[in-house]
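yo

u said u wanted the structure for the complex thing, so here. seqs first:
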Amino acid sequence: MTALARTPAPYTFAQSPCGGLEMEIMGAALRMRASGALLDLAHQALIVADLHFEKGSAYGMRGQFLPPYDTRDTLDRLEAEVAALEPRVVVFLGDSFHDGRAEDRLSADDAARLVAMAQGRTLIWLVGNHDADGPRRLPGQVVDTMTLGPLILRHEPEPGEQPGELSGHLHPCARVSSGRGTVRRRCFATDGTRMILPAFGAYAGGLNLKDQAFAGLFARPPLAGALGRDRVHAVGWRSLTGD
Amino acid sequence: MADDAALPADLLPAAFTGWFATRGWAPRTHQLEMVARARAGRDALLIAPTGGGKTLAGFLPSLIELSQRPPANTPRGIHTLYISPLKALAVDVERNLATPIREMGLSIVAESRTGDTGAARRQRQRVKPPDILLTTPEQLALFCAWEGARAYFEDLSCIILDEIHTLHSTKRGDLLALDIARLQTFSPHLRRVGLSATVDDPDVIRRWMGFHAGEGDGAPPAVDLVLGPAGTPPIVDVLLSEGRVPWAGHTAQHAMAEVYEVIKKARTALVFVNTRFQAEFAFQELWRLNEDALPIALHHGSLAAEQRRRVEAAMARGELRAVVCTSTLDLGIDWGDVDLVIQLASPKGASRMVQRIGRANHRMDEASRALFVPANRFEMLECQAAREAIAENRFDGDPPRVGALDILAQHIMGCACSEPFDALALYEEIRTAGPYRALAWEDFEQVVDFVSTGGYALRAYDRFRRIVKGQDGLWRARNADTILRHRLNVGAILSPAVLSVRLAGRGGRAGRKIGEVEEGYLEALEPGDTFVFAGQVWRLVGVTALDVLVTPAPASDPKLPSWGGSKFALSTFLARRVRELMFDQSHWSVLPGDVREWLELQRDRSLIPAEDEMLVETFPRGKRHFMVCYPFEGRLAHTTLAMLMTRRLERMGAAPLGFVCNDYALAVWSLNPMDGVDLDALFDQDMLGDDLEDWLAESYMMKRSFKGCAILAGLIERRFPGAEKSGRQVTFSADLVYDVLRRHEPDHLLLRCAREDAATGLIDVARVGHMLARIQGKIRHAVLDHLSPFSVPMLLEIGKERVPGAAGEMILAEAAEDLIAEASS
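structre next:
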């Protein structure tokens, strides 16, 4: 990461009244939401990554009985975003399901909520490594990648510089320490030319932005949009610590 | 207690009488008493101070029985099981037991089994059990989860529980009590023997040791009480440091030169402190003064195991003059040479102090010597109160324990791993364990359902049950994999995730290991900062997934991470004695002049409350208004109280900005004056209603409690075979699980467990409740123009503590402001 040691030029961003953080990537106006969802303002597209539906029941099948409410909880938060923003499109950036059989384990209620969400808008399911086939019965379109104006959306970030890429997969987390304690929160990670979204799923873990897995993905030290209770905090590279 | 005369003359066989004689000893009354109780088939609890031949008294009946056994054709099972809270103690007792066995030429095999015992020996012990097995509660829990545990223990005659006073009020004690009940079912004639140091109320331990099947609920303890000799009272002094007792602080730096002089005069001293940071600090200070190059060592739980073993070995060889240590040396093996115990900073409770003082001079007839070194003025009061309590032989009382349901879940799973069980029979057995005497059938059923399916209202896992009820009505573990996973998660000890501290090698690689630190130990440090660890100054290079990388920084002035105070709360008993001492002016003569003047100033400028009153002071200072209250209930209870008070003060319009707490008092500061606040309303007992619930929901302490319960109950696994999780990942997912469960099933069993744990532990709501009841109508309000002498220590702590409210949000917001500053510079 030595290449990142040089002093960065300031990032341009703005706090929106809703607590979100707005910035442009390749000219596309984006709003990072405190929920962890991203809104593409021009296309009214709501983008969420790594929902990992039915992760709880995947563990449950193996005898580790995590509370079976993760899908419901994730849907609660997603529905709240859809109700607040009324997007025309909802894009799932892959790993929407924890495994290939997760769609079968969805409760009828939860499946019905996704069907209802598709009323009056399009659902687009990018596939990820956990759900390589995408959903079979739920409404919406299953794709590998897609473009949205100047942006290219895919599940897993491609190595090297990728201007205009939006991706998920890595579940970025920001850890900030001060004399009074430490916080570790899910975060957006961006260098102004590409962005990695935080995981949206209730049981999705997080990977520290200082982890080697992020090395080489950013043209300069990335900005973390850390998810606070009601707002996204812009945290600079120097304020971040490793685990 | 019976006299010698009342005991039958033939209690000891000739070989034993002869052995005592060759050693130049006579059997002590309590030792013979234990033999007599055993002969009558009675359970017994022996209470005796250190050095009273307690362990031998426990084993004597078993040694006699074993020596008189007729030969057998087939291998026999274990005769006596000995349980120690410490691995090292089990190994030490094994060594001590070898002497009488060898010298009397008895054909008895006594062996220890701990987590460190090799696989071959473990295997052999399983196939060919020793006569006496010495082990720990965790190993016993594993034994009880074995297939074939019933046959293995069906001949068990005696179980000896050593140092029970350290176990009975903990979750480890819950698990042990359940396993004792299990063993009693396997072997109905089993005799229970408890060994304990002096305690406030022996009946609490007698009841903990359990009941027998069929005894009514109101039955008195089934365990006889045997009292050993009282022992010589210890000689305790308090270091007065005339004229130099500091107003605040926890390090006792002012007294280090005096402590060093005292060490020089002693043969070997144990220097006890309350935290690891204090241990490092004191060690550093003593070596700075150590012109005579006395061998002074350091011992605390964050040091590498081998380093601790080296210190212990040097101690046993009598090579050390002093060891600075934490509670890691509270218990354990006998070091004859220690002649002085020094307690740096406040003792917190009388019982722990007696335990620590007992580490000096393991001989009955000589008094142990101890020196208390208070670090500040309130601690001076506390040390005097503790000294007097010890002189009067008075102790802190532990309330009777109600067994935790997460431990019960672990035990039920263990039972199913061992053999199929009938729910009703198991329920009856569990109720013979002291802590579970009052267990309701509904709670038991709920725990069984939790073990089987997770116990969720949404019956999502009914197809994947971990234990399954068969056609025969018996519950069984689902399969071999379930059993294996249970075995890997047995035990009631929750060790925080640890990181290794290593020298940073070339290219950032990790080098030699210096020790281990708990997750969070170095949280406040940034790379480049220096800190003291293992007695040296280091510079933090960075933290990788599993290692803390450091380089030596010998000449630097270390940045001291926040002390965090003591993890032990001031005991209720000692707190009351401190209040009594403070109120009784005729008593002040025992205090040094500067502390006496401080009390007199407080009396003249503010007031000294009566023992049963609580003082509340309000005064302005700078642009702030302060409210300082003095409940003397310990830091945890004060923190909870302050959290709740600030919510109320907010509603009352005082606009509170922050607070600090220590063991004696708490201070809140606000934008608006608080002189007119209705104190009776502020401290009304209904504070523990909705305000508490609201605060708890978001509290990180609840998350910590929940994580502990979830691990103990088997919801979150400690480790998977082949896929070790790092502690940090566990932390993270436990928090996620907590949030989801709280939102969707707030009445779930594990949330109930977590609330109960937090209420007695981390947030000590129980104590806040008692305190609010105690002070109803007894609040003394002093409205002052400026700060009082008592409030000074509190105000000096401001800035060292966390501020309330959404601290996490504030840290993020500050980091964001830094960025804005960075951007606009």
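Chain B touches chain A through 57 residues (CB under 8 Å). The first helix of chain B runs from residue 14 to 22.
cya
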